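Batch queue: ligand-bound targets. Current item pairs a single chain with nicotinamide-adenine-dinucleotide. No template structures supplied; prediction is de novo from sequence plus SMILES. Inputs echoed for audit trail.
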Amino acid sequence: MGILDDKVVLITGTGGGQGRVAAQIFAREGAKVIGCDLKADLNNETVELVRRAGGEMTGFAPVDLTDPKQVERFVQSAASVYGGIDVVYNNAAYQRFGPIPEFSVEDWRATVAGELDIPFFVSKYAWPHLVRRGGGVILSIASISGMIAGETPPMVAHTATKAGVIAMTRQFALEGAPHGIRAVAISSGPVLTPASERDLGDNQAARDAITQKTLLKRFGKPEEIVELAAFLASDKASYITGANYAVDGGATAW
Ligand SMILES: NC(=O)c1ccc[n+]([C@@H]2O[C@H](COP(=O)([O-])OP(=O)(O)OC[C@H]3O[C@@H](n4cnc5c(N)ncnc54)[C@H](O)[C@@H]3O)[C@@H](O)[C@H]2O)c1
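Prediction returned. Tokens below.
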């Protein structure tokens, strides 16, 4: 028995990082997982890993989730795989970093598309499927940079868009409640994934600055985010909606 037995869960960005671990942990908890990613090879690898462990997963890739037409088609196909959708897990994101004067308009727009458009498009097109089911959960991965400013690396667009994800979650919760839809955000602290490895490279000073801001003096692991996500997506969290949970090793505590 898992806490997500038979729930159909649509997870975005399952090609790696937190999304891959989410597919594995949600499948372990009994969910039927539908994953998608821009990167087909990596997404297929995740499907293989989940199935080899005895889990249930169907993958769609490549899908560019910044394109509303592709999202609409993908969500439609996803809903037909297992006959509906119970949980939307907004994990996928793309962002750029840089100090304000050097941060181009294109950098700004790419980050807004990668961090705000994606969860809005996916949630919008999944919404009628959740309503049809009599309710469900929209779980969105925000960031502590939506709660506090971030020095390393400079992150003007990331702070604005992740604050937007937290705000959008409250609105999803308000408009979703009459339909039985709960909406919850998790604000991730620094976690080592392909994205953070790419952004930090061999910049040890940046890595140290980031871990020093946490109380636990280390990066988080993807599973430390995803275990909470599994609980929040389950019926055990039935009184939780409109909330934002920081999972950050204490980085927002001081
Ligand atoms: N890693 C961290 O330190 C950290 C901190 C705070 C918040 N977060 C958030 O956690 C979530 C997961 O982050 P991660 O570190 O695992 O990232 P990641 O880059 O390792 O994984 C993101 C996945 O999303 C996919 N993706 C990106 N753009 C896409 C698009 N347009 N269409 C389809 N797929 C797309 C990527 O291919 C990738 O597989 C994101 O929302 C991120 O903003 C991460």
